[in-house]
């Protein structure tokens, strides 16, 4: 009889221990904060007041400062992790903050639109990659930075207001109008789409933070930052155009957008019309070629835009056929440049020597053996983005030596009355000096800088 009682007693002790153990286990991300609300705190500082405390290094806030804000981020879909973003007003917000916390499922306690109070005394303030942060302290190799605030102390600093949640009105803006005051605020951008190369890819690679590229109809771009642990990681990027809402962040000099979930994305409209950014024009032509007798480092090619509008050179190139070659010897891309209306564009194979000799830098410095480095017996052509020859000097397949297209040790200058490029070489449009005087050219070697006029359309 005593044995049975003792057995029941031991079983009871074990069950009690299991119950106590189950009720004492801590959440792996610390205890959740106490629920409830408050309406007795009064803000005594603005977001700007707090940011002004930052003087370049992480600082602990010593005064009993209180600010109020409105939660705009959510970790419900997993695209935010252990961070809260809040802004100063539910609409027309002009400032925001990020706070790092060691609390999962924070949306259950601090949902979007929740008005909150922050008691900042004892917290740390820092700026990381252009983003202001509040939180605990993190030390690495003696350097202090803002770290996650443990959930066990969160309820000493973060308080939910008792009033109903507000509807957050995102600030409407455009990619080219983004500015630092919008960081950590909710923004909305219209007429956006994913880059054509990324259509059909997943929002993020599994377990990896992934950048996708948003593009507007003016070709401005903005990275869309997605978590590889989000609920929508495997969803495919839509191909349409439309509106995207998200929290604006920054990584050094690059703005980034982070959505809360796929409800922030509405790309159901037609994509932007194709942007035409490649142009052709007969107004652009070769205006001067230089092979100075006294300095081969001062060679150059000058182009001239006779038009009344600037001409973007995307897709344009200058080709060289050395001596009698019929196959292309070298080419220079002009894609990154624009020639102003009635302006020259000077290309040099030795930019440093060009500037030393002529007193100003060329518009484009290229390598030796490029089209701008001809020794005077080569043939050149100017080609537009569509492969059409707009202008040509010389005759491809014929070495220039002794011909009417030789400028060895000299200069070839387009007559001032010429205002259009010609795909077939015409000697009558040129004034040519060289060291032979063959085929009607002038036997008079030219010296730099006095015999040349780079950057000027005139004799």
Topology record:
Elements: H1 2-24, H2 47-51, E1 59-60, E2 66-71, E3 83-87, E4 96-102, E5 115-119, E6 124-128, E7 131-140, E8 143-147, E9 149-150, H3 151-154, E10 158-160, E11 171-173, E12 186-194, E13 210-216, E14 221-226, E15 241-251, E16 254-258, E17 265-269, E18 284-290, E19 300-305, E20 311-312, E21 317-321, E22 330-333, E23 338-339, E24 343-348, H4 351-358, E25 364-365, E26 379-383, E27 389-393, E28 411-414, E29 430-434, E30 442-443
Parallel strand pairs: 4-7, 4-9, 11-12, 24-25, 29-30
Antiparallel strand pairs: 1-6, 2-3, 2-5, 3-4, 5-10, 6-7, 7-8, 12-13, 12-15, 13-14, 15-16, 15-17, 18-19, 18-28, 19-24, 20-23, 21-22, 21-26, 26-27, 28-29
Largest sheet: 10 strands, mixed
What is the helix fraction of residues, given as a range? under 10%
N- to C-terminal distance: 126 Å
Query: Structural class from helices and strands?
Result: mainly beta
Strand residue content: 25-35%
- Round the Cα radius of gyration to an integer and report it: 35 Å
Uncertain spans: 1-31
Query: Which whole number gives the mean pLDDT?
Result: 91
Give the CA-based shape.
elongated
DSSP summary: helix tally: 4
Total number of β-strand segments?
30
């Amino acid at each position: 009889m005593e044995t049975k009682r003792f057995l029941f007693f031991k079983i009871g002790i074990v069950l009690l221990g299991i119950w106590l153990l189950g009720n004492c286990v801590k959440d792996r991300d610390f205890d959740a904060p106490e629920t409830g609300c408050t309406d007795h705190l009064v803000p005594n500082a603005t977001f700007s007041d707090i940011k002004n405390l930052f003087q370049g290094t992480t600082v602990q806030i010593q005064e009993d400062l209180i600010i109020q804000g409105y939660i705009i981020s959510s970790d419900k879909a997993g695209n935010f992790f252990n961070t809260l973003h809040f802004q100063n007003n539910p609409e027309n917000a002009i400032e925001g903050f990020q706070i790092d916390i060691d609390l999962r499922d924070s949306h259950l306690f601090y949902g979007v639109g929740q008005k909150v109070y922050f008691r900042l005394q004892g917290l740390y303030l820092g700026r990381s990659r252009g983003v202001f942060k509040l939180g605990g302290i993190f030390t690495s190799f003696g350097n202090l930075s803002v770290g996650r605030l443990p959930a066990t102390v969160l309820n000493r600093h973060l308080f939910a207001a008792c009033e109903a949640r507000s509807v957050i009105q995102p600030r409407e803006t455009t990619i080219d109008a983004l500015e630092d005051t919008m960081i950590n605020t909710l923004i909305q951008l219209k007429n956006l789409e994913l880059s054509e190369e990324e259509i059909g890819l997943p929002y993020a690679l599994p377990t990896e933070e992934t950048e996708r590229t948003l593009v507007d109809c003016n070709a401005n771009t903005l990275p869309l930052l997605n978590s590889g642990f989000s609920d929508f990681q495997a969803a495919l990027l839509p191909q349409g155009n439309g509106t995207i809402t998200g929290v604006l962040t920054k990584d050094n000099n690059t703005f980034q957008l982070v959505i809360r979930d796929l409800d922030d994305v509405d790309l159901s409209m037609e994509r932007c019309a194709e942007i035409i950014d490649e142009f052709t024009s007969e107004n652009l032509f070769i205006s001067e070629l230089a092979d100075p007798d006294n300095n081969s480092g001062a060679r150059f090619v000058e182009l001239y835009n006779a038009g009344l509008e600037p001409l973007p050179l995307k897709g344009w190139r200058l080709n060289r056929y050395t001596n009698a070659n019929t196959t292309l010897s070298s080419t220079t891309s002009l894609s990154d440049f624009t020639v102003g209306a009635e302006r020259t564009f000077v290309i040099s194979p030795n930019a440093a020597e060009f500037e030393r000799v002529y007193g100003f830098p060329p518009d484009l410095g290229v390598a030796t053996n490029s089209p701008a480095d001809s020794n005077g017996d080569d043939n050149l052509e100017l080609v537009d983005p569509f492969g059409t020859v707009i202008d040509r000097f010389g005759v491809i397949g014929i070495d220039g030596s002794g011909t009417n297209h030789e400028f060895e040790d000299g200069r070839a200058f387009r007559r001032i009355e010429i205002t259009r490029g010609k795909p077939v070489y015409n000697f009558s449009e040129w004034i040519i000096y060289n060291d032979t005087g063959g085929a009607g050219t002038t036997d008079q070697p030219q010296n730099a800088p006095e015999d040349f006029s780079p950057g000027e359309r005139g004799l």
